[in-house]
Each structure stands twice: as structure tokens, then as C-alpha cells.
Specification:
This protein is an alpha+beta fold and about 450 residues long. The protein has a domain of about 100 residues: Rieske Iron-sulfur Protein, CATH 2.102.10.10. Helices cover about 30% and strands about 20% of the residues. It is built from 16 helices and 18 strands. The strands form five sheets. The protein has a six-stranded mixed beta sheet with strand order 13-14-15-16-12-17. The chain has a four-stranded antiparallel beta sheet with strand order 5-4-3-6, with no helix packed on it. Strands 2-11-10 form a three-stranded antiparallel beta sheet, with no helix packed on it. The structure holds FE2/S2 (inorganic) cluster (FES) and fe (ii) ion. Fe (ii) ion binds next to loops.
Length: about 450
């Protein structure tokens, strides 16, 4: 680390100085929250919309982050984004979602108008204004940087930041290999959680919690999913000694639990395929059972996808050449859990130092005429309608948020082997707060977006 970086980092309040210890005040201190709002959020790529939300020309959706609001709109010339403020006296032009084809955006205060390309088309009583105050470029909507990747529109308030793919790093190639951009929404839920946004992100960064938080998942474990489940305290897999029948039986039960517990990720069709493979995979050698069952599942999922004309990737090829981690992160607020061909996706946005907006999608390959879901089901965070597994995940979080305030609780202590991602994430935030060089921060993002259950990484500063 250079002396300049060291000096800049040294000025960051509540900085992570010991990589295995995260100061508890980072999760509720107002000054720290405001520093993040000033130095992290305005410089990072944020998932603003799924492209399915705006399928037709004129469709728009509002993306909110802290005190900012952005309009993401599909135009004839592609997806564009604008800061959501009238150029007259600042009124927000749109709320939520809609279609502006033929009408454009109309300010509800004095009726100024714009077309979907952001060009001002009408000023009521124009003659009462000084023309010098109505320069066309000045009264057009202010554009916001937007890029499309992975079936989503991403915005960034920083015009100097590297592109989405350059910022996120190799994770984008791993997800491209799985044709992520062609996935469609099966379900979308949204709720407010009484926790700091980082706490919500961190609940998904390690498999160490599975044993206690998701006991129903801690049963049938396939070799290629060990990373997700983490193993028991000694790192043993409960089914290592099972017979092939037992193994397949438990695996199907497990897939069923994942399917219902996540309301997706593992799809109903995956379970049907697994059922068909019962009896087909027989061997004395468990390693062969694991690998054969896994290979046959992926072959059948690919074949079935092809038969239906869906862009399901050849999962055996993808997993051999560019395997994805069980959870793939895109700093700072988005992550996906790829399973076979389906995925779950999460987006977490700060609201206040101790509240955040938590969203969950279930994604799968569907034909074009499949019913399109373009808005979330909004519910209270303790609703029993939230899928079971994420409900278990964030069930602990409000209690954790309260516990962090306890007298004498100065810092979280992390496992350097399995909880390193939390440290990596937090230290990258410190890099942003220290305003380190953007090229360094981009490189550090690659070291942070490197999977799941990861050890503490060198971020280069
Ligand atoms: S504030 Fe929008 S037209 Fe006046
Ligand atoms: Fe979990």
C-alpha cells in the first residue's frame, strides 16, 4: 500500500483495521451512513431495473436510491435514464412505473413536457420567461449514465467509473455463460427490513449459518454443492456414507425443499427430471453416484430446454469451463444464487442507517409468451408469504441489528476462512470512503466479487 493510500484510509472513521474484526458502529452510526451515501453510492453501478419491467417503447420505471430518483425508460433508440426532476422547479416527474408513449413526461406542477428521449417539447406560457433561461440543452432532462447487462439496466452517477463489466470483473463472464440475460421473473417480493443494508448483504456471504439457520437443508448434500451448504462443524458431509438410493432419495427431498423454500431457484421441472433419474444411477462408489447424478441432471435439463426452444445453457459444459459460485456478488447491492438453470436474485438498498429495502426475485427460463411479472409483491418483512429460506436468512437480522448496540460489543469477529467476504466487502467500502484511485477500487471489486464462503482477500490496499 502506498503512503498516500495509507494516509487516506487512516482518516476513515470506524475503519476496519483488523481484517477479522468489523466495528459494530459501522452498522448504525449516522455519520458513517452519511459518508457511505456521499462516497460509495454515487460511484457504483446499481441495478435499476430488469428489462422485463420495460418491454415496450415508452415503458418507464423509477429507481430510487437514498435521496435520488432516476427514470429508466425504453425508447425507440434503446434504454435511457434521466434524473427524475423537472427542469423548471425540480418536481419529480414520475413515480413508480408506467408508459409515456405518445404523451411523454408531463410535470404535474406547471405542465412542462418532455418526450421519452428527454427533450423538452413544451413550456406553458414560454413568453413569460427570459429566453436566456430556456437554453434547450439546459431544459432537456439531465441524462443519467446507464448500461445494460445481464437482462438488467444498471445506472451510475459517476461518469468516470469503469463500465459495468469492467467494474464487476470476471463474475460477469461466469453469469453470461449461464445466459443470465435471458432469464425471466417467476416471482418478485419486496419488503423493508429493520437492519442496516450491509447486515442484509452479509447474511448471504457465508455457508457457515446453514447448520443453525436452515436445519432442513442440512441433510442431503451433493459434492458440487458443498460450497453452498458448508458441511457440518467438522466439515463432514452427512451423506458421505449413504447408498446410491438413499443419496438420490435425499437429494430429491433436498431439491424439493430448495424449490419450495426459495419459491424458485430449483425449478419444479428440475425435480421432475430428478425423479426420472431414480433407479438410473446405481453404483457402489459414492463418488461415481455424485458425479453421474449431477451430470445426468444437467444433461436432461439442457435437453429439455432445447426441446422447448429455451436458451438454457449446456450446464455440463458451463460448469466444466466456467463454473459459477453458489452465490455471485456484484458490489455493492446485488447478488444471485445460480442453481441448475434457474437462479434467485437479491437487491438491497439502504433507507436509513438501520433500515433497508430488501428484494428477492426467482428467475427461470420461460417461453416469450409466459406471463410477465413487472412489479414486486410488497409485504411486511415478517409476512409468512415470504419464501421460507430467505425468511430464515433475514429472520435473525433485526435481532442482530439490536445486538450490535450492546454495551461492550465493539466488533464482530469473523472466520478468516469462511466469512472473509464480509471483511473484503467492508474494506472495499473503506477504500471508497478514503476516495482511493478509481482504478484501484475497480480492481478491488474483482477481488470482492469472487464468490461465496471466501477467505480474506488482498484488495491491493
Ligand atoms: S416545476 Fe415542473 S413545470 Fe414547474
Ligand atoms: Fe441462508
Amino acid at each position: 500500500m502506498t503512503a498516500t493510500d495509507e494516509a487516506a484510509l487512516g482518516k476513515v472513521p470506524l475503519r476496519v483495521t483488523h481484517p477479522q474484526r468489523i466495528p459494530s458502529r459501522r452498522y448504525y452510526d449516522r455519520e458513517f451512513f452519511e459518508l457511505e451515501n456521499e462516497h460509495v453510492w454515487p460511484h457504483v453501478w446499481q441495478m435499476a431495473a430488469r428489462l422485463e419491467e420495460i418491454p415496450e417503447v415508452g415503458d418507464y420505471v423509477e429507481y430510487k436510491i437514498l435521496d435520488k430518483s432516476v427514470i429508466v425508460v425504453r425508447t425507440k433508440a434503446g434504454v435511457k435514464a434521466f434524473h427524475n426532476a423537472c427542469r423548471h422547479r425540480g418536481v419529480q416527474l414520475v413515480m413508480e412505473r408506467g408508459n409515456c408513449k405518445g404523451k411523454g413526461f408531463i410535470c404535474p406542477f406547471h405542465g412542462w413536457r418532455w418526450n421519452m428521449d428527454g427533450e423538452n417539447t413544451f413550456i406553458y406560457g414560454r413568453r413569460i420567461f427570459d429566453e436566456a433561461n430556456l437554453e434547450q440543452a439546459e431544459i432537456n432532462l439531465a441524462p443519467c449514465r446507464v448500461e445494460l447487462w445481464g437482462g438488467m439496466a444498471w445506472i451510475n452517477f459517476d461518469d468516470t467509473a469503469a463500465s459495468v463489466k469492467e467494474s464487476f470483473g470476471p463474475v460477469t463472464d461466469r453469469l453470461d455463460a449461464r445466459n443470465m440475460e435471458n432469464l425471466k421473473v417467476e416471482g418478485w417480493w419486496s419488503f423493508e427490513l429493520p437492519t442496516n443494508w450491509k447486515l442484509a448483504m452479509e447474511a448471504f456471504m457465508e455457508g457457515y449459518h446453514v447448520m443453525r439457520t436452515h436445519p432442513q437443508l442440512f441433510q442431503a448434500l451433493t459434492e458440487d454443492k458443498i460450497g453452498y451448504f458448508g458441511g457440518d462443524a467438522e466439515g463432514k458431509m452427512p451423506l458421505k456414507e449413504a447408498s446410491a438410493e438413499e443419496y438420490i432419495d435425499k437429494t430429491i427431498t433436498q431439491l424439493g425443499r430448495l424449490h419450495t423454500g426459495m419459491a424458485g431457484m430449483v425449478l419444479a421441472t428440475d425435480i421432475e427430471i430428478a425423479e426420472r433419474l431414480r433407479g438410473e444411477v446405481v453404483s457402489e462408489d459414492m463418488a461415481t453416484v455424485y458425479s453421474t447424478f449431477s451430470r445426468r441432471m444437467k444433461e436432461e435439463i439442457f435437453a429439455e430446454g432445447q426441446a422447448k426452444g429455451l436458451p438454457v445453457p449446456d450446464l455440463n459444459v458451463v460448469d466444466a469451463t466456467m463454473p459459477a459460485a453458489s452465490v455471485e456478488y456484484m458490489f455493492p447491492h446485488y447478488f444471485v444464487l445460480p442453481y441448475y438453470a434457474g437462479m434467485s436474485a437479491y437487491r438491497i438498498r439502504p433507507l436509513t442507517p438501520e433500515t433497508c429495502q430488501f428484494e428477492l426475485w426467482s428467475l427461470a427460463f420461460h417461453p416469450e409468451d409466459h406471463e410477465r411479472i413487472t412489479a414486486p409483491i410488497v409485504m411486511p418483512h415478517d409476512s409468512p408469504d415470504v419464501p421460507e429460506i430467505p425468511r430464515q436468512d433475514y429472520g435473525n437480522l433485526p435481532r442482530q441489528q439490536l445486538g450490535l448496540h450492546a454495551k461492550g460489543f465493539e466488533y464482530m469477529r469473523l472466520s478468516h476462512q469462511m466469512e472473509g467476504m464480509i471483511s473484503n466487502y467492508q474494506r472495499l467500502i473503506d477504500g471508497f470512503l478514503a476516495r482511493l484511485d478509481m482504478a484501484k477500487l475497480t480492481k478491488a471489486q474483482h477481488a470482492v466479487n469472487d464468490g461465496f464462503n471466501r477467505p480474506i482477500n488482498d484488495l491491493g490496499f
